[in-house]
Amino acid sequence: MSELDRKLVRGSAWLALSFGGGQVVTFVVVAVLAHFVTPVGFGLVALASVAIVVATTLQESGLGLAVIRHRTDVERAAGTVFVFNVAAGIVLYWLTFAIAPLLADLFSQPRLTAVLRVLALVLVLRSFGVIPGAMIERELMFANRAKGELVGGIVQGLVAIPLAVAGAGVWSLVAGQLAGQCLQSALFWVFTPLRPSPRLFSFPLLRELGKFGRHMTAANLIALIDQNIDTLTVGRLVGAADVGFYNMAWRLANLPATGIGYIVGRVMFPAYATLQHDKTAFRNAFLTNVRRVALFSLPVGVGILLTAHPIVVGVFGDRWEAAVVPLQILSVFGVLRAFAGTTGPVIQAAGKPQLIVRLNLWQLAALCAGLFTLTPPFGINGAATAVTLAAAAVLVPAMWIALRTLELRLRELLANVERPALCSVPLAICLAALQLPTSGLDDGLELALLVLCGAAVYVASALVLARSEVRTITTAFRSRATPADEQSVLVVVAHPDDEVLGFAGVIDRARAQGRRVRVAVVTNGDDRALGRVPLSFSGARPGWPARVSRLGIRRGKETIAAMALLGLRFTRDPRTSDVLLLGYPNYGLEQIARSEAPWEGDRTGLHRTYAAGGKWRPSNGDFSHLLRGRHSRLCAADLARDLDDLVELVRPTDVYTHADFDGHPDHAEVHRQLVTALRRRGRPVTVHSTLIHPPGTRDRMYESAQEWPNPGQDSVATPFERFTPHLDFMAPPGDDGTGWGPLGPPDELIEVPPSMLEADPARNLKLQAITRYVTQLDCRSRGASYHPSCGYLRAFVKRSEFFWTMHIGTQAHAGPTPIPQR
Q: How many whole angstroms separate alpha carbon 284 and alpha carbon 56?
């Protein structure tokens, strides 16, 4: 199976644990509470929850999805939406507080006022966890999200049950929800890879994100009305007790079947977004997930339909028997909704959210017509029928749009669903045959017998009729991917900013393919002896060691910020961090690689490695200190050991680095030392090398920056015009006529993703990452000229990235390999 499919299955597994485990906890809690809280109490909380859900949709305003999709300046986007969510939560709480009496009068339930005013505190508590949760989801860290949601659900039950036993009634339900939401938000803050900062709030960015989310906000609001108008109609036309019966049936019917659609939708949206330009992969991913929805949702729907009576009476007691028929009707609705859930992410990822709005409007119209026609004469049974018919009415056009978007034929869809659907036929026959023999048993015993027999029959039929799909899923559950299994990518560069200039497109594409990417920066770029950047601008002056090391720390922070834009995060644990800073001095790798004793030529005065990211000291973030608790000496042995540890830690299958004929001495030395380390470890790996400085420019890099990459500074009006994402790299002029260098033209061209082809500088992801290197991007005009760095870095934003490739075999060296001499 592909690595992307592995991640999707594992993400689905964690969401299944979160949703399924949470629903099981809810099922158990509700089963216990049903013996202590009256149906009227459940009805009051259900009515109050409708108002809370409406307020929650307004609070988020589709901005959570906007942050997940946003690629540039993610930290600022997260901080901006975080401030909005908290402010909106407070405002909406007081608005709900004010209108609570009006809603109580509307439903003729005086107690609803107090219940709603207290339960609305959920809006404030939830506001603190929305963006941390979105960042967790953005990085596909579904395990962490599952932990937060599941623990929150457990705490909700642990608070509610004792209060209900003590006689708190409806207030036990309210207190449980508040406690669960509070802990869930707190855990999201603990698990999030990026904690939003209110100081980064930007009103223009909020407006930009709001434009993206407006269609989704409209769609969510309409869907919200779709999902709750049945409860409101029953409450208005029938009564609070029947709301309790109906709500109980709705929960049970949607507990498993709709959960499948929810899980698939949540996992597949980011996957579809990355595959939208690869129609074949997009289509295959959709068909795979439709098969899995059929495999899991159909048997659950069949099971609920045929065991509704023992489920309701056996678990909740005789007084809930009125919920049996609505549950049977809504079991069909659950299956229809699960299949409809596979179409929404397709339409969103294809960039057509306005169609979601139209589909939801159509469903709302069909639902309203059915509710107001069927509820008055048939009560909650009529409401359940109306909801089911509306789901069928929207499934047909939604699936048609998805098929048109993916250029799929209905015949292909039905062929993919056929075998998973047939697996449910033996299950239906088994449960129907057991109805009469088990009818005289206790309802609880009857339910247990039906579940055991039905599960055994379905597992057997699935193993026979859908063996390949079952094998794929179980393999993903059992296997534990190692870094090598993940086809991991390691980018090793000499200086901060090289990783973006030469490899930003590679990093983004590898992550889109589901591969683990790590970036290692060997030096801090801290020496300004050559004066390529004005010293007053960089913050360092010759002879001032403290200022030199301060510059190195600052450049490390710039790398961390730039990598965050590309989805890579820095942590203080090298085993989990995507960004690794080795912390060697700039313009010293050649001397260090030759030195048996520690080199003392660095200008920091530290005579050891250092890097940004330290906890107690800002310079204690270097790879060696974080991994082993001590800094590396500036000598050949420690440099070789650091590279050995790096290769062993990552175990890459693809390594991207500098060419050994790069004009910068540090770049060439990184290549030589890294290749030697890879050969020492003896694992198969492909090395992809590129140029940052052309061959033969070692002593004229300042002048070279004005000549290459194309177009050169002398051929354009201003260096800003060297930002040319529509062009490819041309061969360097070469100081000695070598052009590309000794290997000739590159043998590998990789197109950058669409986000790096944007002609608008403010929207081009690669350029936005480059702008994080403030110390290297001097664009101040000095009369009629600009510093070469202004145009030089911008010129690396091109249509593709180029590499020379070489393969390293599996035979390890018998002993230590001498450090190659220049």
A: 35
Residue 748: phi and psi, rounded to 5, are: -145, 125
Phi, psi of 216 (to 5 degrees): -70, -35
Q: 120-139: per-residue pLDDT in tens?
A: 898 899 889 888 887 877 76
Cα 556 to Cα 493, 773, 811: the distances in Å are: 13, 9, 35
440 falls in which pLDDT band (50, 70, 90)? confident
Give me the half-sphere count of Cα atoms (radius 13 Å) on the Cβ side of residue 561: 16
Share of the chain above pLDDT 70, in %: 83
Q: Does residue 519 sit in helix, strand or coil? A: strand
pLDDT at 501 over 90: yes
Amino acid, res. 281: A
The distance from CA 34 to its chain's CA centroid, rounded to whole angstroms, is: 37
Name the 3-class secondary structure at 526. Answer: coil
Of the candidates 32, 43, 40, the residue with the CA atom closest to the CA atom of residue 317: 32
Nearest CA among 614, 651, 649 for reference residue 631: 614
| Residue 32: Cβ-neighbour burial (10 angstroms; 0-12, 13-18, 19+) | middle
CB-CB contact of 168 with 43 (8 Å): no
Length of the chain: 822
CA distances from 544 to 97, 484, 588, 620 (A): 61, 44, 18, 20
733-753 confidence digits (pLDDT tens): 864 545 788 888 999 999 898
Q: Which span out of 2-11, 403-412, 639-648 was modeled with the highest average pLDDT?
A: 639-648
Place of tokens 């699935």: 462
Residue 526: which residues within 8 A CB-CB, separation 6 or more?
A: 540, 548, 549, 551, 552, 555, 585, 586, 603, 604
pLDDT at 520: 96
Average pLDDT over residues 32-38: 72
What 8-state DSSP symbol labels residue 407? T
Give kind and range of the element (H or E) at residue 800: strand 800-808
Report residue 605: phi and psi, to 5°. Answer: 80, 0
C-beta neighbour count of 337 within 10 angstroms: 25
Evaluate if residue 293 carries a pLDDT over 70.
Answer: yes
Summarize pLDDT for 504-540 with one digit per residue, the tens: 999 988 887 778 899 999 999 886 443 333 333 334 4
Mean pLDDT of 292-318: 85
Best CA proximity match to 527, nearest among 540, 509, 518: 540
Question: Who contacts 39 (Cβ-Cβ below 8 Å, separation ≥6)?
Answer: 240, 241, 244, 245, 319, 320
Distance, in Å, from the CA atom of 820 to the CA atom of 822, rounded to the nearest integer, reads: 7
Please state the φ and ψ torsions of residue 339, each to the nearest 5 degrees. -70, -40
Which residues make Cβ contacts (< 8 Å) with residue 96, sequence separation at least 6? 51, 52, 55, 116, 117, 120, 123
